[in-house]
Amino acid sequence: MISSTLTVEDSPIEMLLKEQGTLQTPVGVFSAKHAAGAVEPQQAQFYKQLIPLSRPGAGEQYAFKVDLDKCTGCKACVSACHSLNGLDEEETWRDVGTIHGVDLSGASYTQTVTTACHHCADPACLNGCPVLAYEKDPETGIVRHLDDQCIGCQYCVLKCPYDVPKYSKSLGIVRKCDMCQSRLAEGEAPACVQACPTEAISITLVNIAGVAEAAFLPAAPEPSYTLPTTQYVTKRTIPENVEAADLHALRPEHGHFPLALMLVLTQLSVGLYAYSIFAESALLSTQLRVAGFLTMAIGLAASTSHLGRPLGAWRAFLGLRRSWLSREIVVFGLFSQLAAAFTLAAFVDFIPAGIVAALGVGVLVIGVLGIYTSIMIYHDTQRPFWAFPITALKFFGSAVYLASSGYLLGSTLQGDASMVALSLLVLAASAKLLVEFKMLGSARHLEMTPARKTAMLLLYPLRSIMLTRFSLSAVALIAAGILWVAPSAPWLAVLVCGAALSSELLERSLFFRAVAAPKMPGGVA
Amino acid sequence: MSVIDLAKDQMRLRAFDGALTERLVQNPAAHGLGRLPKTVKPDATVNSICGFCGTGCSLKIHLKDGEAVNLSAQTDYPVNIGMACPKGWESLTPLAAKNRATMPLLRNEQGTQEPVSWERAMQVFVRKFKSTFDEHGSGAAAFLSTGQIVTEEMAFLGALAKLGMGILHGDGNTRQCMATAAVAYKQSFGFDAPPFSYQDFEESDVLIFVGANPCIAHPIMWQRVMLNQRRPEIIVVDPRKTETAMAATTHLPIAPKSDLTLFYGIAARLIQLELIDREYIRAHTEDFASFEVFLESHSLKRAAELSGIAYGELDRIARLIGSGKRVSFWWTMGVNQSYEGTRLAQSLINLALMTGNIGKPGTGANSITGQCNAMGSRMFSFTTSLPALRDFEKAEDRAEVAEILKIPVERFPTENSFAYNEIIDAIDRGEIKALWMVATNAGHSWINQKRFRAIRDKLDFFVVQDMYGDTETAQIADLVLPAAGWGEKDGVFINSERRIGVTRKVRKAPGQALSDFNIFRLIAHHWGCGDLFKDWQSPEAVFRILGQLSKGRPCDFSGVSGYDFLDSHGGVQWPLPDGIETFEPERRLFEDGKFYHPNSKARFLYDAPRPMPEPPDAAYPFILLTGRGTSSQWHTQTRTGTSDVLRKLYPQSPYVEINPTDAKRLRIAPEELIQVASRRGEVTVKAVILGSLQPGQVFMPMHYPETNQLTLDSFDPHSKEPSYKACAVKIIKS
Question: Looking at residue B5, what is its pLDDT?
């Protein structure tokens, strides 16, 4: 019939396009064969021995077991997980990396490593979540993410040392591997287990108490932080010097600009309120409180814009028991109330002075506490670049540096530049810059430590941002120096303020981008 | 969700369920499948052979209203028994790529490509080819086919081009991968007949992989190796310590291109130790006596010196090969893509023949195929030979084919066509003026790209027929014909172990893209030779014609009645002549010791090893090895590059692997951008420092266009296959 149409001179293309657009009905015989009520999935014959026969007993949980001697890097597990779990196009919950090194005999050693969520005994994601969107199943030990509970703060992404939770911009939430718990519940194997051609992945029962003593995987992040339960087994000896194939890759992390803005502005705000308490003139104090209120408001608005699902942010108190993010949100919530009242008090005269003073102290104490919780959020991720001392210097330093520049401006506008503010500014800025500069020296380390990675990230891919940050602070310091000798030049104070604020925003952006984020070994970049 | 609903939803203190949770909820899916997300729950399934590599896995396509929504691996298919590699899992993704060609593209007067109607495309196509013939004769046009389209389409392309249009020269990209194995088999066995079935992976005691990295290149074959319960010795012969070398029991990191000397040395040692099967040799082979004489000038000692492997180790392996255990030899591109590849493949065939390791379980000299339909191309594409490996130059062969096809025998060319490299040379000489390229990306894959790009300008007319309008090659074409891809058409592939399997149409092609089959019908119509192909109504009709053409030939599959037969039998290995009622799902050849030469004997073929065409020297001190990068990359990446998942699984930027000693000496840091230069080109790539290759060697994966800027266009004299694997380069620090 088609050829008869083809011989008709005017329509072969239409006819062929029509044929191309027609799908056959699938082979009926084949479809019918299984519709007749197959009791178990066909693949069950292969995976039955790869999942435990019994549910976990007391003190036990499910865990992935990876036989490294069988994993040869085909990566079918990654694709199968993606397809059988219906993930978004760019979303993957499993990854395959490589570790390599040289063994004692001098022979090269290469091993591919398949990895997914380790369903940790002490999950950092769960501990950090401000809204309790994670739960560890009491029976199976599977660390589940509750998608509808999630507000998209992405703190778990920073908390997990294995780069497991994946944020979806389109959904506004994080998702992650749940060990195919609904499959396991029905006696089916997880997708990765079903799909591994060499049976390298299986599900096993582990004794939870024993996880802390178990060896994990060389070249993977230190397991004591979260107690990952995945068991990597091999009959070979893994050389001690193995490193991840992506160890030397210099990939800056996400900049999280709203968070950078939030941190810098809330710190500035706390500093401004502090100055407002000690300000010599009432007018200046009022100006500082208003400025403090505005910067706080912008900062907190920015932090909300960072959330994938901000409408649920009110639930953030749920995680108070464990999550520093939860604590930060609550403390800054309180701070905003007190700050508003304290600011308002500058404009009304019916509030007794004692209460205003108490409010001022309250604002200061809660503000400092707020900065402390901010520091702890990052310190708690166990990333060396975000460790307490350096982060405290940066965050409190910003408060002093920027608020001093603000006070400087205010005092200059009202007369002469405050020498106290000027001194504090120079002190805070110099301390910060010195420490940051010193950290670059880690680039000379022989081993790719997190400190070296940070230094390398700053010196290479992030070089221009870093140089701009230093230059802007230099401008601020030089302008401040001129103010010292010409204390009544407001435009110089404006310059100090502008340069300092932009410089600190870049510092905070680098804080996020240059961090060495721990992860499981990846592939060649 | 409305704003109010959203607000309500967000008012819950604890949300254990809801719209987001629902997205991933799994339900039992029936059809023999387990639980699947309810968003992609199929209402039917159909089996379809994967369109990437030559393993030939069967994928179970999940259909909703007749259209593919997902897939998994077919459990009960004898090839892949429920498994697939990541490319297979991602097979549907490249179909939905944004860069699919949806309209014919014609280069206009200003030199830019613009969309035109099929009508216009066909007019130009026919006018250009006809005027080329008028001006320069039938030798002035050529087509280059592929190992990636279905057999029926290959046959149609060849028949249309050669018998319908009168194009003399045609070849396929299988010249770049399987030509060596095909010629080696043809010379040794009398027919291009890979003797094995995948069952042999499981039944072997000693598996010797030469220039093959199945762990990532053919993961599903490696699955079969892992299913071997005989605690086999696995020996990998490869300059690099590849994934497969790591997984093997023995790795022989031989010096590049010392392979032929190595296998002759082992053969000499086997004779010396009298560990050969003289009875088998006498009964089933010929020319062994002269081979024995030839081997007198070879020794294991010399092999050890040249290869850099200790004599004792080689001696152990020689004794293992001659031990009477089941020994199988497996090779891929490390052998095929060599300037002396044919003899190298035959050096392995010789070892199998002289130890009687052929025609028995777990034995054989076995070529692992690259592309999904390399064998379909070799058997039925009308390029190197007439269908079923008949000879263009033999009158009786032409007559047989003419009679079955009902096409006048006068239309058959009486001479062989140029091979791929000869077509390139002929374009360079100005003899070939029009070129038609189907489903291959020569603008990336052909060796020594600088020359290829230069000769493109010598073509008056260059047509590219492809799924994508923006491949390196499509970009330099005068006319681009938009083709449907795998999954958008029916047909059969023939895999490594001679298994014929059906691939199915489960998606509609985008825009005005047509299956290659339909494009050929359209061209036949516009050329005015549609009548010749009036029986070529559908792929299955052509499949039955091919079955008739195979009748009486070694690759006889006339016992296959059609696609449903293939589907219900889990694919069918040739031969399956008409009249065979029952047969095993996995069969090997030569169990009766009868080969396809007229005297039924296999032949020993050999030549003295030659030095490599461009050895490293003072100016270019490194030897550049090339090969596959990861399991998630396929050739020039036109398809695998469109999948987000696959892209995550391979390095994004081109790179070169270099030994730590060399890196230290040249002060190259990991991840540093360096220049690699050969006498033909210079590229900037990232340095990856790895101990898996020897000092003096560097390795670049073939998937990045940079690699063939460097390669040297040298060829095996028998198979004309390009020698991609070795040329001299230098490293320049940026």
Answer: 84
